[in-house]
Amino acid sequence: MDGTSSTDVAVVGAGAAGLYAALVAAAEGASVALVSRSPLAETASYWAQGGIAAAIAEGDSPERHAEDTIAAGRDSARESAVRVLCEESPARVRDLQELGVRFDADRAGNLALGLEGGHSERRVVHAGGAATGRRITRTLSALAATDERITVLEPVAATALATGDDGSCAGLTVRRRGGEAVALRARAVILATGGMAALWRRTTNPRGAVGAGLSLASDAGALLADLEFMQFHPTALRIEGPRDGFLITEAVRGEGALLYDSQGERFVDELAPRDEVALAIHTELERTGEPAVWLDMRGVEVERFPNIAAALADVGLDPARDLLPVAPAAHYTMGGVATDLDGRSNVAGLYAVGEAACTGLHGANRLASNSLAECLVFGRRAALAACDGPAASAAAAAPQADPRVAAPPGDDTRAALWLHAGLRREAEGLAELAGDPYPLARLIGGACLAREESRGAHQRTDHPAVDPALDGMHTLVGKDGAPAFERWR
Ligand SMILES: Cc1cc2nc3c(=O)[nH]c(=O)nc-3n(C[C@H](O)[C@H](O)[C@H](O)COP(=O)(O)OP(=O)(O)OC[C@H]3O[C@@H](n4cnc5c(N)ncnc54)[C@H](O)[C@@H]3O)c2cc1C
Prior knowledge:
Shape: globular
Radius of gyration: 21 Å
Bound molecules: flavin-adenine dinucleotide
Distance between the termini: 42 Å
């Protein structure tokens, strides 16, 4: 990699969305550069536990899956995106099987389907108990590494997008750690850089999930959407040390795990959608001043979740015997680069998929296990659209010597996001956040301020009710502008 290189499609990010998009584009005959900053084991995809939601069970249907997704999204999910996800997810599960992913089966040899909060049916396909992400990404990554049309660039960071005089995207600048900046010309760039939950102080995400793709896209003129909708997972381990924030999948509650307050009483329906359970726990913690509530897995077949049992053993906890201290943590970015149903942003030649994108699918609250499905369904659609798209602008993709996106923020910004854009927000704190030195934090603060209501993951103490006028409305924000609301069909 030196000077200037060129490729048909540049995919930035090698989690589930990027790997799958790269493989689909390569299968279409495109040359693909797959750029990844961190190793596979540091992607959110690798960490995914519960599984992939797909209406496969007898008696289930894409329509029922869609109804559950829309209900969880709190009247804010984009129905066209929901339909696409729910109709195409079963076929993508079959694709993975054909590519060699072995999902867990029941005694009769059929796919074993898990139940998670907000789903009215068992429809979560999983592998290795709660090691679904690891199994999928290992298979996809091995295929990408041996595909002659794919050049894997790792560990290499995308540091700027190159736009032509007409504003379209003509490639990007990449840089190996300590190396020179290199221009990579591409007909299309697909951002699959994951979410931004690690901008919050307490998170379930890998450290690198700081929304780099959102910053790159915004800098290149793309609109970002729904930045106020950060999902907090209800049951992240609450302990001192590096395992703090370790996620305990919702699937354990699907198998009967219960939540108790400090008096040993149940206080919430454990299988309600995530926003509801997370808020109930937060309220309980505010009321008691305790750091955690208690998750009881003692009635659950622990052997089904070997990686959770192993992680807990690391910190001296035995789920068959001990109650587990848990509290909410920032988990999933419902917002992202605003795209259509084929991953297109408003910048020609620039696409976004997976957690970096916002199709509007999740509305104000993602339904459990819909995001791996999203990576596959929209990863494929974007790859096909990118291969079909027009040639890039003739403008040279000159390397940018200096990164155009700010380095990941310091602890002050992470603390400010946790404090001011946490499970409950109000105008005064959000106004402070909107003046944060970190550009993406400023945009998040602005989007939270603009949405003067409480909906799903966005709870305002100063606007505690849903505003029906905002049903189906998404916030859109450019690099320097004020957020505007738009209705998406
Ligand atoms: C603990 C945990 C458990 C989860 N469980 C589930 C589950 O069971 N089911 C489900 O549906 N969802 C689950 N999720 C959510 C789901 O895993 C993610 O939404 C999804 O995997 C995101 O995939 P992605 O490909 O978009 O991004 P990621 O998997 O996060 O990959 C991002 C990639 O982008 C790269 N990157 C970032 N910035 C740059 C840059 N500037 N230059 C180059 N490369 C860059 C990274 O190195 C990485 O390769 C879970 C998430 C977590 C954290």
